[in-house]
Specification:
Number of strands: 24
Helix content: 40-55%
Strand content: 15-25%
CATH superfamily of the largest domain: Thiamin diphosphate (ThDP)-binding fold, Pyr/PP domains
Strand order of the largest sheet: 14-13-15-16-18-17
Number of helices: 25
Largest sheet: 6 strands, parallel
CATH class of the largest domain: Alpha Beta
Length: 695
């Protein structure tokens, strides 16, 4: 940098860089936990990016057209917290109202990694304003950034008009060797190269160190050449401390219009630490009191000063990123006012996107399916019809599948629907993730964090391939929609490798995630109605491959009961029920068949459709006991998956018809008989329960 401003003979740029370093060192040392190495070595790079290039206004950290900075190397969280504090980034509440207080106060840094501090061990999106996405699991930030970049290109195509550039933001990612080793980043990088996402820049801290030691223990590839093969533009910086080289590389990225950019920065982890350079110790643990003093001496810093922010540092940031980005943000806001006059509908869409509000009339064309007990409709097919009814009325609803769009029912086929591709100027809404389930889910998070409403689909069995990113959806409280079809051993001849058994209960175990397994086409409609109204919760739709009967709702209860998680679908006549038959998805039809047989035998039975455990548990106790009366001990659950967890609803003595092993390769009817998913099996279990209850 060519900064003539100095303080006590030290340039203000260098003073700011060393302030970032020492705040990070002190926070990790006081917490006796954390990773000081990367903040020490990459402070010059991050400072250069933020002070000279990043279009991020600390006064309004959720300005829609801001550049995004993603710290994929989330273990280096103090680097980000130091920047947020020194730039004076303001906190924003859940109602999108900018607050007067700082997002990260100095006392938060002093309480790094402690209970209730805004400076958690790894950055958390919903907790600390200025954190664009939760990171820590390596590779996730990289992959999520691809979704942010895709959202930016789509929004530019949809919203920008002559004279009105409403969206042209860039996405920057700071990542390290661990990110480059994780498969999810490779999946996402491959797709980003294919899509030519020129608004995406990954800055790779090439320091050759991981927790176990030098990367040559397990990692020796030429990362730059790999990314060149992906279709990325690759630039190199010989030394992280050479800020002029860093600035030239970033400027080169901003000139690139036909590819994403990887900037390979060669660095020395724990820069300035005399004794712990080039070791994993400076990466993964505090330096120690003596080493802290020696390191500060290397920086020309007062050895005994702790959490020192010298005079002039905050002011220098304010005069740099603060003034520069503030002018850009205010100009954008003025532009938005003019835009609203000329394009009121589009301006309204921008506002609704930012607050996750639904467009007017989004559900006006939702289908209703007539009763059909013979031929029926697969819930994946019904879901596809619902999605194609919603999408034309919900312009910022984007999604696709991991190479299974038609098979999972998420392909948009209405007139005007098109593909999201570079060659089509990113105008389409059918996203093609390729066979990259893990990257798909992380990209869905990036889209959702950019306020695009995202969905993605694959078979339920492959939810295992994307679980880490789905878990982050729940941690971040973003309303990503996961569509999982082929929901049981009913996939038949494909065999146990493709037959989900434990996947449904694994999804139910994730806090904050809503799972819905509808029993017929009309429950599927209601499931989408529930999902679309969610603002802070991800959801999974668990759908059948095969046709299911469409129940006669003049005979059985309305499908709208799905919204409460469980409802009485068919009830006993002439008194309270003696036995409860509880089913989900395709197994509800087995319960209804057994119910009709029991009714003919004079048994008072009740069928409960329970598409969502989570929604049911949210209901008040009175409703839950109305549906499942505590006095009724004879209970049978029926679900073509693991029985784990069903004790909660049927009790220890209740019958649980489900899977206790993996499936088998065979035709559907043979499988259903082998594993007990027949009306006769349900009927027999009900009779046994009644006999036990009457003793």
């Amino acid at each position: 940098m060519n900064d003539a401003a100095t303080k006590d003979g030290v340039s203000l740029d260098q003073l700011c860089i060393n302030t970032i370093r020492t705040l990070s060192i002190d926070a990790v040392q006081q917490a006796k936990s954390g990773h000081p190495g990367t903040p020490m070595s990459m402070a010059p790079v991050a400072y250069t990016l933020w002070q000279q290039f990043l279009r991020f206004d600390p006064e309004d950290p959720i300005w829609p057209n801001r550049d995004r900075f993603v710290l994929s190397a989330g273990h280096a969280s103090m680097l980000l917290y130091s920047l947020l504090h020194l730039t004076g980034t303001r906190a924003v509440d859940a109602k999108y109202e900018t607050l007067g207080e700082l997002s990260v106060k100095l006392e938060d840094i002093e309480r790094f990694r402690q209970l209730d501090s805004k400076c958690t061990g790894h950055p958390e999106y919903h907790l600390t304003s200025g954190v664009e996405t939760t990171t820590g699991p390596l590779g996730q930030g990289c992959a999520t950034s691809v979704g942010m970049a895709m959202a930016g290109t789509w929004m530019a195509r949809y919203f920008n008009r002559p004279g009105f550039t409403m969206f042209d933001y860039d996405v920057y990612v700071l990542c390290g060797d661990g990110d480059m080793m994780e498969g999810v980043s490779s999946e996402a990088a491959s797709l980003a190269g294919h899509l030519k996402l020129s608004n995406l820049c990954w800055i790779y801290d090439n320091n050759h160190v991981t927790i176990e030691g030098h990367t040559n223990l397990a990692f020796s590839e030429d990362v730059g050449r790999r990314f060149a093969a992906y279709g990325w533009k690759v630039r190199h910086v010989s030394d992280a401390n050479k800020t002029d080289e860093v600035a030239r590389a970033i400027a080169g990225f901003r000139r690139t219009r036909d590819a994403p950019t990887l900037i390979v920065v060669h660095s020395e982890i724990g820069y300035g630490s005399p004794h712990k350079q080039d070791t994993s110790e400076a990466h993964g643990e505090p330096l120690g009191d003596e080493e802290v003093k020696l390191t500060k001496r290397t920086y020309g810093w007062p050895e005994d000063a702790r959490f020192l922010v010298p005079d002039g540092v905050r002011e220098h940031f304010s005069q740099g990123i603060g003034q520069r980005a503030g002018k850009l943000r205010k100009a954008w806001e003025r532009r938005l006012k003019s835009y609203a006059k000329e394009h009121p509908e589009l301006a309204d869409h921008i506002e609704r996107m930012q607050t996750r509000e639904l467009p007017d009339g989004w559900d006006a064309e939702l289908p209703s399916f007539p009763a059909d007990m013979e031929k029926g409709v697969a819930t994946r097919t019904a879901s596809g019809k619902v999605l194609n009814a919603i999408s034309p009325r919900f312009p910022w609803l984007l999604g696709g599948a991991a190479d299974l769009g038609a098979s999972t029912g998420v392909r948009l086929t209405y007139q005007g629907a098109s593909e999201f591709e570079a060659d089509d100027d990113y105008s389409g809404r059918n996203l093609h993730f390729g066979i990259r389930e893990h990257a798909m889910a992380a990209i869905m998070n990036g889209l959702a964090l950019s306020k695009v409403r995202s969905y993605g689909a694959t078979y339920l069995i492959f939810s295992d391939y994307l679980k880490p990113a789905l878990r982050l959806s729940a941690i971040m409280e973003v309303p990503a929609i996961y569509v999982f079809s082929h929901d049981s051993i009913g996939v038949g001849e494909d065999g146990p490798t493709h037959q989900p058994v434990e996947q449904l209960i694994a999804l139910r175990a994730i806090p904050g995630l809503i799972t819905l397994r509808p029993a017929d086409a009309n429950e599927t409609v209601e499931a989408w109605r529930v999902v679309m109204a969610l603002k802070h919760q991800p959801a999974c739709l668990i759908l059948s491959r095969g046709a299911l009967p469409v129940f006669d709702r003049t005979k059985y209860a309305a499908a709208s009961g799905l919204a409460r998680g469980a409802y009485v679908m068919a009830d006993a006549e002439g008194g309270p029920p003696e036995v409860l038959l509880i089913g989900t998805g395709s197994e509800v039809k087995l319960c209804l068949t057994a119910y009709e047989d029991l009714k003919r035998e004079g048994v008072k039975a009740r069928v409960v459709s329970m598409p969502s455990w989570e929604l049911f548990q949210m209901q008040d106790r009175a409703y839950r006991e109305e549906v499942l009366p505590p006095a009724v001990k004879a209970r049978v659950s029926v679900e073509a998956g693991s029985v784990l967890g069903w004790d909660h609803f049927v009790g220890e003595r209740g019958a649980k018809i489900g899977m206790h092993t993996f499936g088998s390769s065979a035709p559907l009817k043979d499988l259903m008989k082998r594993f007990g998913f027949t009306p006769d099996a349900v009927l027999e279990a009900a009779r046994q329960q009644l006999a036990e209850a009457r003793k």
